[in-house]
Amino acid sequence: MYKYSHALLLLLISFSLSGCMTRDDIFGVKTFEKISLVDLLTAEKSPVLVPKVKLPPPESKSALVQAVIEAPSSARTIATASVAGAQVLVTKTQKSSKIDITGATGLNADPWPLSGNSLLPAASASISAQQLLSDNGQTERSILLSQLAAETALLQVEVAVDASLKALIEANYIKVSSENTIKIIDHYLDLYNAREELVLSAVAAGVLSKTDELELRSLRNNTLSDRTNAVLAVSRADSFLKTTLKLYYQDAMSELATLDDIAISPKFLLEGSPNKKLLDRKSEQLNLEIDIQRNRNKPSSNWRTSLSSPTSRGANTTLYGGVTIGFPVSDGGESAAQIESLSKELEVTELDRQVLIQEVSLSKKNWTEFLKYYLLQKVLIKERIEISEQNLEELELRLKAGRSDISRLAREILSKAQAEIELVQLEARYLSERVNAQSSSGQTCRLFSLCDTIKASLPKN
Question: What does pTM read for this prediction?
Answer without folding.
Answer: 0.73
